[in-house]
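Field reference: sequence -> structure
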Amino acid sequence: MIQVKFCGITNEEDALCAANFGAAALGFIFYEASPRYIEPSAARKIMVKLPSRVARVGVFVNESAAEIKRVIKYCGLDFIQLHGDETALFCRKFPATQIIKTVFLQNDEDVEKACAYQVAAILVDNRNKGLYGGTGTPADWKLARRLKGRKPLILSGGLNGKNIRQAMEEVVPDAVDINSGVEISPGKKDPHKMADFMRILEKEKIVAQGENLFSRRSR
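Structure field:
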């Protein structure tokens, strides 16, 4: 089955539930303006209780390299998801194999800019109302599809149990990232929605075309 990352984890119950349903990765948002923000100290307490197979992803928005590196070490992150306006030059401050770069595609030029990033994967999300993701609205799937085969591709933005089949058919991503589509409220997941989402992917036998993106880093 295609790998799934549940993002916006704020509590142990949701984290363990997502892991039990087969999540390949969990995302913890270290951006204070987000309604799904979690303190690094609280995230670390959750992470140590996760199964070893689940990748730990820290989400940052326009944060300093020094602070990102501090949190990587403190929490033992496997990946960092740079979800803001970080440049390709900024990304070079970290190992490429550790970076997931979020992009917001509006035109052909944005697609070409995304391909310039030297990263482990590109995550396509949507941005509106000044929010960096978590908006519950789909990304531009046609533009996202143009990244397929050029960069490892993670699809995000408004995914849920109702549209995941269509999204997979139109974009054919290497992994998917879901946040608000399985929530009761911002930061609180709905176990029934998570289970249904995973069940749909399993039933459809949707698999990634390439290698698994989310894997634990050697320490």
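Note: The chain has one domain: 3-203.
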